[in-house]
Amino acid sequence: MSRHLKVAIGQYSDRGRKELNQDFHGVAMPGEPQRSAKGIAIALADGISSSAVSQEAAQSAVTGFLEDYYCTSDAWSVRKSGQHVLSATNSWLHSQTQQSHHRYDRERGYVCTFSAVVIKSTTAHLFHVGDARIYRLRGSELTQLTEDHRVRVSSVQSYLARALGMDRNVDIDYDAQQLAVGDLLLLATDGVYEYVDAACIANAIAGSADLDAAARVIAEAALQRGSPDNLTIQLVRIEVLPDPEANEVYRQLSDLPCPALLDARAEFEGYQIVRVIKHSARSHIYLAVDRETGERVVIKTPSTDMQANPAALERFLLEEWIARRINSAHVLKPCAHTRQRQSIYVVSEYIEGQTLTQWMIDNPRPELAVVRGLLEQIAKGLQAFHRLEMVYQDLKPDNIMIDTTGTVKIIDFGATRVAGIEEITTAVDQINLLGAALYAAPEYFLGEPGSTRSDFYSLGVIAYQMLSGGFPYGTEVPKSRTKSAQKKLAYKSVLSEEREIPAWIDDALRKAVEPDPFARYEELSEFIYDLHHPNRIFLNKTKPPLIERNPVIFWKSVSFVLMLGLIVVSTVRFH
Asked: How many domains does the chain fold into?
């Protein structure tokens, strides 16, 4: 009978002599098959004492790592998964500081040290930045496995050289250690390890009935020996390691193959394929039924063209992580894997409904209230991306589904950019069709990477199209690839005789689709609010000439005046 990984864990944390505990720690021990595929994760973070918000940074770093690591693809190695997660976490923490009043003093911002161990099969994978430490106790020998990122100025003065949130980018130390049954891994903050030695640790473990009690004894010993700092320690003892044969299977999970094309009625890893939904250059999408639960799902596999392209496969696997990280009613929800995977694919919920593209064809003159409701839902979906420092980059009607209850969901994360992770530099590379290019923000055509305001622009174009059937600058934006060309773009008012749309709605749309991203709305909520309420700034401004607001009415008026003039002249001559 094959053996599975089994560990014993003990933890303890206390504020010690300080008023506030700025440390945070946690453990994730999933059940099978996730334990075999992803392992067991242990993490701790230590907030810096100069910051009043570093305890929030420590908590965000630990909880974010323990949640987001298990959202990464099973096909990724532990190293790749951990580094992606920590790079994204670092960018989020840094952005929080930049948005606060501590943006010019990083030592008062959202900064913390971080150390984690992922135990998968017979290997301990170590991730570390800062001055917490990871040790291994094997027998009576205590070995430090991490290096302190601290610069010593003198025997009594030093400063932290590297930490999460300190800079826009961060170098994460990684190491892999082979394990043996009986090994004990110890993670501790400096308030503990600077005041205890190997003998103290070994005696505490030998003299305690469980590891929680041992962790407490070690921390209290540090306190008694004069530690002035917070006290956090985690102990992990390896009790059972997997069989070598099982280990080989788990190792191969990081090199999963791509599946072949699937046909209707085919059986695939516990699913039965119902039909093909879509084939594209990037992926094959199928409607399927989970034979275990009877639930209808969507299976997405890499396209046959992608399978020889490592960069394209990386994008595909990144999509899975993005989907798993987001929890929003307005974003496509992935399905949890309950069986060991044998190939690369993604399973998501099946949405019974239609795309926004089809909806606009079916509803060419929608009520303003209906348009507002749909836009508000799309905005909530976008905000779920933006809260995690992600830019969606490919918002268009084909990527928006409306289900039978009227709920809007954003689908397809193939162009999404995650802060802190080097991917594509611009979404233009992802835009192959004119229909997609017409929704892309002008800055993409200048070669710029774009921002959340680029998503605001795309939503503004969709709003404009829903109300008018056209585009605010016609088809000129994709052709305008210099700033001077973009300054010449002329906005076409959505106002017309055919539809009763308030002028302040047109003003809101104009601001949302400004070619200059810094002239657009700063927040999505402001745009949605202005679609519901007249903005006084718009109401108080001087109205543009009639030829700009409504050229059709202008020229009709001119023609009418000329006709009257001709009638008057003719009448005078006749008399």
From this structure: 3
